[in-house]
């Protein structure tokens, strides 16, 4: 079965929250306790099956440090489409709890976001986080076209002028 679509996922968050560890756990099943801080951006790819559809995920891991903010912003700027899914991932649940689960759920519900807890170290919740994200994209009508066909969309520039563009990839934020 060929891939139905490619999704470009941009993983963002503060420095040290475990973005790289989550991506490593998801793409390889590995965990590295002494994972170095991401400098700039890193890229991983994984193909997954969601409800019988094969989806290729291009996962961009961004640096959380403030000094890389400009570089990270350029990834938003040059995306064909920016589809923002707000998924709150309570990571590092293998460590003593700092935030109660109920508080995370309440925050996510108040802001109409998905909520999942995970641990890159134990793999708990890692696949579920990405599966939920892709499932929401697939369930949303008009977000992607099947069989690799492109769709023409109208994009407004900062000055308000519209341009037509053709795109195959979609950007998601986790």
TrEMBL record:
Protein keywords: GTP-binding, Nucleotide-binding
GO molecular function: GTP binding; GTPase activity
Keyword RNA-binding: no
Lineage of origin: Eukaryota, Metazoa, Ecdysozoa, Arthropoda, Hexapoda
NCBIfam families xrefs: small_GTP (TIGR00231)
InterPro entries linked: P-loop_NTPase, Rab, Small_GTP-bd, Small_GTPase
Database matches in PROSITE patterns: RAB
Source organism of the structure: Papilio machaon
Name this polypeptide is given: Ras-related protein Rab-18
């Amino acid at each position: 079965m060929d891939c139905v679509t490619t999704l470009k996922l941009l993983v963002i968050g503060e420095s040290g929250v475990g973005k790289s560890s989550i991506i490593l756990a998801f793409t390889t099943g590995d965990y590295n306790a002494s994972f170095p801080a991401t400098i700039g951006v890193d890229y991983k790819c994984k193909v997954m099956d969601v409800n019988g559809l094969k989806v290729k995920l291009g996962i961009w891991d961004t640096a959380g440090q403030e000094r890389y903010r400009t570089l990270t912003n350029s990834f938003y700027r040059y995306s064909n489409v920016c589809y923002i899914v707000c998924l709150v991932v309570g990571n590092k649940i293998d460590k003593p709890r700092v935030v109660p689960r109920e508080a995370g759920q309440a925050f996510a519900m108040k802001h109409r976001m998905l909520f999942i807890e995970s641990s890159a170290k134990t793999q708990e919740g890692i696949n579920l986080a990405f599966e939920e994200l892709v499932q929401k994209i697939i369930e949303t009508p008009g977000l992607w076209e099947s069989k690799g066909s492109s769709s023409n969309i109208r994009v407004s520039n900062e000055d308000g002028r519209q341009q037509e563009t053709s795109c195959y990839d979609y950007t998601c934020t986790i």
